[in-house]
Amino acid sequence: MTDSFPWDKIRKDFKITKNYTYFHSAGMSPIPEPVFKTITKAYERLYEAGDVDFHRDLEQSEVLLQKIGDHLNTSSENLALLPNTSLAMSMVALSMQRSLHMPFSILSKEDEFPATHIPFEYQGIPVKYVAPENGRYPVERILDQIDESTRAVVCSHVQYSTGFRQDLEALGKALKEKDLLFVVNATQGFPFFPIDLEKMYIDVMVASLHKWGCAGHVGSLMYTSEAYRERFPAPVAGWMSVRPPEGEYILTSKGDPVRIHPHAAQYQFGTSNLQSVLGLKAAMSYMEEIGFENIRRRILELVTETIASLSQLEDVEILSPHSHAGEQSGILSINLKGKNNEACVGHLEGKGIITAMRDGNIRVSCNIFNNSEDIELLTEEIRHFMKS
Questions:
Q1: Does residue 377 fall inside a structural domain?
Q2: 205 DSSP β-pair partners
Q3: Last residue in a domain, options 269, 287, 305
Q4: How far apart are the C-alpha atoms of 282 and 286, rounded to whole Å?
């Protein structure tokens, strides 16, 4: 249990707790004070010194990727930071379209966030969708939908609406045996739900970092295995994704053959917001100091407490699957029978309680700065709304 951990001290690091009762980290997590100070200092240096620290900041982004690589059991050479998940998935769709013989299809899930499947649909790649079973996606149910045209399974680790958490190890092993690509959107689980990229046989992983990364809009992490890049090289290139001549920093010659980097830097098409990247580095260090296992346990404890509290209210339906071990996340979806869910979200916001509407239901997401008082307030205001 995490009861003895100084969560009250952690809560004070998040100024948002003074202004709102915030259950919306699945939309965007607020940043703690140490991250805010890091980003502010980085922009202050930009204000005072312009481009002077560019190369030093670029080196720190490499340190960040090494830290994340250790966290995911992979080399930093397999990691890159892209502007967003939709772009990362589009790179995968374009590469598959260029390298695979048509016709082929991919398999995904009905509950997926649009960034997971739209890039493939837009490129004309047929996408088949697995229907959930009471909000769950057992591995066998996914495998049953694979046919001779299937070349990849593209799905989320955690479903953005229901919070269902997929068993990536079992699914990855089964897909490896079938020689199918495994593409994972880890946005709603990274960085505190463990992912072992090697053990799970993941070929591509992307994760939007503004959800649970506690660093604001810093972009999306993209992992590609070496075997994947050899078979599906980046379909576009920029000045930072190509190899310059020996001893040079930039490829300036014209008309010569362009060779992209063999490692994941081939996806680093150009410059990025290094000030935000420094914020993400500080956020990873902040969470690492707390302990990812502590964070995971705390979040799951809060979700369990929220379920227990809301279950006491008549006509409140818990939609998120929570009876199977290992399938819970920080996300909880509920429905108010006989009441307008959207009106309830508005009512809660009027009381300073921030939730969200997803798929017509109320989404509540718990984070490490939440506490029992937040849950009691949420429950009480939903009770008041139900009686109105």
A1: yes
A2: 184, 223
A3: 287
A4: 6
The total of other beta-carbon atoms located within 10 Å of residue 167's CB is 16
Q: Of 268, 287, 306, which one is at a domain's C-terminal end?
A: 287
CB burial string 49-62: b at 16+ within 10 A, e below:
eeeebeeebeebbe
Separation between Cα atoms, residue 49 and residue 164, nearest integer Å: 47
Express each pLDDT in 87-96 by its tens digit: 999 999 999 9
Q: Please indicate, yes or no, whether the overall pTM of this predicted structure exceeds 0.90.
A: yes
Give the whole-angstrom CA distance, residue 20 versus residue 322.
Answer: 27
pLDDT digits (tens, 9 = 90+) for 344-365: 999 999 999 999 999 999 999 9
Length of the chain: 388
Q: Are strands 150-156 and 105-109 parallel, antiparallel or unpaired?
A: parallel
CA distances from 137 to 330, 337, 350 (A): 17, 25, 36
> What is the DSSP secondary structure assignment for residue 114, as one 8-state letter?
H
pLDDT at 105: 97
At 352, the amino acid letter reads G
